[in-house]
Amino acid sequence: MTEVATRPEAESAKPKLKRQFVSFVLYQVEPEWRRLPEAERKRHKQEFAEVIDRYNQSKRCQIITYSTAGMRADGEMLLWVIAAELEAVQELASDLSATALGGYLRRSQSFLAQT
Q: Does the predicted model carry a pTM greater than 0.90?
């Protein structure tokens, strides 16, 4: 069997892939939140969305949101978070928890991976 030699110039020509952290978090809204006045719920959602927008605009994370309302018994909202640094994922989670809506959310599922 013949060994194939790798040439150093061939190795350096390969593009370097950067590591990414990927998080999937499924949130369930506590029933008490739905009993709040509509205007208050609207403010809560706006504040929560502003945090997501701030992280997306800062380029620290890419956050993709999905509604799972009516499709899953264990959650209404899924966040798919992609970041180059794990700290950004952790800080996002803390900032979302600090919102008014965050006080009514429960993480029913949470997955973290590295590419």
A: no
* pLDDT tens track for 18-60: 889 999 999 999 999 999 999 999 999 999 999 999 999 998 8
User: So what's the pLDDT on residue 5?
Assistant: 57
Nearby residues of 106 by Cβ (< 8 Å), 6 or more positions away:
27, 28, 30
Instruction: Give the position of tokens 């928890």.
Output: 97
Cβ neighbours for 47, distance < 8 A, ≥ 6 positions apart: 99, 100, 101
Q: What are the C-alpha distances in Å from 24 to residues 19, 67, 84, 100?
A: 17, 13, 15, 21
- DSSP code of residue 101: G
CB atoms within 10 A of CB 47: 15
Tell me the CB-side half-sphere exposure of residue 87, using CA atoms within 13 A. 0
Beta carbons of 82 and 90 less than 8 angstroms apart: no
CA-wise closest residue to 79 among 59, 38, 107:
107
